[in-house]
Amino acid sequence: MAPAPHVPLDPPDRLVRTVTAWEGEAGRAWLAGLPGLVAGCLERWELTPERVQYPGGNVSMVVLVRRADTTAATLKIGMVTAETAQEPAALAHWNGTGAVRLLEHAPEAGALLLERLHPDISLRSLPDAKAMLEAAGVLRRLWVPPAEAHPFTAVADHTARLAALLRERRGRPWAESGRPLIDEALEAYERLAGSPVPGGPVLLHGDFHQGNVLAADRLPWLAIDPKPLVGDPGYDLAWLLLDRREDLVASPGGRAAARRRLARLSDALETDPGRLRDWTVFRAVEAGVWCWSVGDRTGGELLLEFASWLAE
Predict the structure, then answer these.
(1) Residue 151 and residue 24: Cα distance in Å, rounded?
(2) What's the confidence (pLDDT) of residue 238?
(3) N or C end of the chain: which has fewer CB within 10 A?
(4) Quick check: 228 pLDDT over 80?
(5) Residue 5: is its pLDDT beyond 80?
């Protein structure tokens, strides 16, 4: 069916900015074809659009829709990258346990039809302590063994590439001030890479933070937007530990609060605090140096300051 003419289906500004900045010419070409992809999926799955979700994702367009039987759903169309390619497989494996349920999938369009959650209510709407408690409950449901012949990248392989990039960026002139902390992060990575995963590898969300957990009807909270990997749960937990870092860095007791948060999360999810510290330092420094590499000095400084609190 054709989209209702009164429903604007233009890509959100944030999507245009990030895809253009991160993906260059390929991103611009994808954005040019995006209206056609949206229209094709609306027709293919007999969907009626209600509105585009703003501000939406960084690399995907989200449209709230109704199916032919009038049930609510969500259409998500994004660029297919190495990070996002296995999202449908992860959602299918979880089958609604801890994560949004996958209803339909069109791989050639990078399109997913998902159950409707409450897109404007994430865990960030809760006080931080309560949000962390709820997030821990979601992670317990997500961390399951993968299928024997799974398609997911191993954390060990993914982080080996990140560590190699971090070593290369360490020598750039703009990274000079961060070199001592980069060395700390690489030492943490070597400790992790040289040790077995306690309890064995599990399927990870890969980008787990409070903003990627939305209110739902089937369960109170469900995860969205995975970048799935298989490996050490500490990899997932580290990114959650870094959540709301802006608030912690701005507060006078931020350093102590960050360390208390680490202790609480490692205890709640029975994760070794030393491993969680190492994962957090590595992920924070790697992401911070990446921010520097793309010109985001402020974002990079924030991540490195947080890492420095745990590295001491």
Answers:
(1) 28
(2) 97
(3) C
(4) yes
(5) no
What's residue 55's pLDDT? 85
Residues 172 and 243 in one domain: yes
User: 208 and 305 share a domain?
Assistant: yes
Q: Of the listed 120, 157, 183, 207, which one is catalytic?
A: 207
Count structural domains, the chain. Answer: 2
Element of type H or E holding 158: helix 155-170
Provide the edge-to-edge strand list for the sheet that holds 213-215. 118-122, 213-215, 221-223
Classify residue 226: in a domain, yes or no: yes
* Residue 207 annotated as catalytic: yes
Q: In this structure, what CATH number is given to the domain that contains residue 106? A: 3.30.200.20
Is the pTM here over 0.85, yes or no? yes
Q: How far apart are the C-alpha atoms of 13 and 211, rounded to whole Å? A: 19
Copy the structure tokens of residue 218.
């089937």
List of residues 6+ apart from 67 with CB closer than 8 A: 45, 46, 47, 73
pLDDT by residue (tens digit) across 123-158? 999 999 999 999 999 999 999 999 999 999 999 999
27 is a domain residue: yes
Please state the rounded mean pLDDT for residues 260-271.
Answer: 94
Long-range residue pairs from 243-250, CB within 8 A, at least 24 positions apart, any chain: 243/209, 243/210, 243/211, 244/124, 244/128, 244/210, 245/302, 245/303, 245/306, 246/302, 247/128, 248/306, 249/302, 249/305, 249/306
Structural domain for 106, as ranges: 13-116
Residues 97 and 146 occupy one common structural domain: no
What pLDDT does 3 receive? 45
The confidence score (pLDDT) of residue 1 equals: 45
What CATH number did the domain enclosing 217 receive? 3.90.1200.10
In this prediction, residue 58 has a pLDDT band, given cuts at 50, 70 and 90, of confident
